Amino acid sequence: MGGEWRTVPIGDLCLGIYDGPHATPKKTDSGPVFLGISNLVGGRLDLSETEYLSEEDYKKWTRRVEPQPGDVVFSYETRLGEAAVIPQGLRCCLGRRMALMRPNPALLDSHFLLYAYLGPQFQSVLSARTVYGSTVDRIPLIEFPNFPIAIPPLETQRVIAHILGTLDDKIELNRRMSETLEAIAKALFKSWFVDFDPVRAKMEGRWRKGETLPGLAAHLYDLFPERLVDSELGEIPEGWEVGTLGNVAEHPRRGVQPDSIEPDTPYIALEHMPRRSITLSEWSSADGLASNKFEFTMGEILFGKLRPYFHKVGVAPVNGICSTDIVVAKPRRSAWFGFVLGHMSSVEFVEYTDAGSIGTKMPRTSWADMARYEVVLPPEYVAGEFTRLVQPSIERIIAGIHESRTLTALRDALLPKLISGELRVANPAMLTEGVTP
């Protein structure tokens, strides 16, 4: 890659390096974002679980520094090595144990700085200069500006940032697409099977035969009855029944011993499962496992039964094995898949399992309790039509998971070679055409 690389103190490339207040403000339901170290995930800001603070506290917490687009935030205690770039439009402040670098745009590209920070060379610098304590490890911020970092000319920085950023952008696009597809499926489930919107629309004269409503195509009209009737669960559609999850779902207890598991078998444990998302994009291999596990197949539903309030529920994206702290569930017949997934991933179901869990420090639910969860059962042809509508979304989510894992592997292979200068691009000017400085 064109131009000479040089190693300089990171502070010489920045307009400033700042840490946040060593305290925590009162949280609010809305307002500016309060960034915490848990928001730093794999080189990006994960704002799926966001905390906010008041405008008054925001002024106090940004007296020293107000994060700006292009700043690189990082953790200097506990989750060391994590970093992310502040994007456009995010109004936020630094939380405890967080700091930021404000790169000099004449010397340093923000996204190159991020990738260099995450690369093995600078990570080894961080590791060598970390102060290891009995309770917490930390980067000494007073010394941080002197940490050495290798950089090429600015034009080459932008090439590297463009190559790696293109891969990350596609990974992020897949993540957002999965979020959108999941939200649509959840909204449709709630409309059909919780709020009974199609029935109410017919009762109120808002939906007539041959007409289309949002989320309700004309051909669905005859699926739903025209009135609600009383039941022990309140009003339900006429012809539907009160039953339990166990009527339409089962727990296939396919136990497997460690000596019969192939080392490269995908393995999902609770730590691989995100909260409140059915997209299971992480897993490891079974190599070295020493205890019994459960088998699952792609498309089956995994539910974290240990501390169920963590709301860890997802659709298996591969065939594999899982921890025995995870319940494997499947519909008794394929038509019920969407219905079963909708209930098991709902807030109401998670709260039900949490209320009935056993144990104080390590509460667990069980399939026996889960199967007793009361539901309103539609005719199977209604459940089947719902599954037909949501199945393509589930398949697209799974396809996105595999594509993103491939892209991540490619990015992880390229990053150290590009950041070190080992992999060179013949014509940086050609690649930076259209790249914003």
Estimate the strand proportion: 15-25%
Q: Helix/strand/pairing class, anyone? A: alpha+beta
For the termini, the CA-CA separation is: 18 Å
* Main β-sheet, spatial strand arrangement: 18-21-24-19-20
Shape, please?
elongated
Give me the number of helical elements: 10
Helix content estimate = 25-40%
Low-confidence stretches: 430-437
Average pLDDT, rounded to a whole number, is: 92
Radius of gyration: 26 Å
- The number of distinct β-strands equals 26
Largest sheet: 5 strands, mixed
Task: Please tell me about this protein's structure.
This protein has 437 residues and is an alpha+beta fold. The chain has 10 helices and 26 strands. The chain has helices at residues 55-61, 110-118, 120-129, 154-193, 197-203, 337-344, 347-355, 367-371, 380-420, 428-431, and strands at residues 6-9, 14-19, 27-35, 40-41, 44-45, 51-53, 72-75, 83-85, 92-94, 98-103, 131-132, 137-138, 148-151, 228-229, 236-237, 241-244, 249-250, 255-256, 266-268, 284-285, 293-296, 301-304, 313-315, 320-322, 326-331, 374-377. The strands form 9 sheets. The chain has a 5-stranded mixed beta sheet, with no helix packed on it. Strands 2-10-7-8 form a 4-stranded antiparallel beta sheet, covered by helices on one side. Strands 17-25-22-23 form a 4-stranded antiparallel beta sheet. Strand 4 and strand 5 form a beta hairpin. Helix 2 (110-118) packs across helix 4, helix 4 crosses helix 6 and helix 4 (154-193) runs antiparallel to helix 9. The radius of gyration is 26 Å and the shape is elongated. Mean pLDDT is 92; it is low at 430-437.
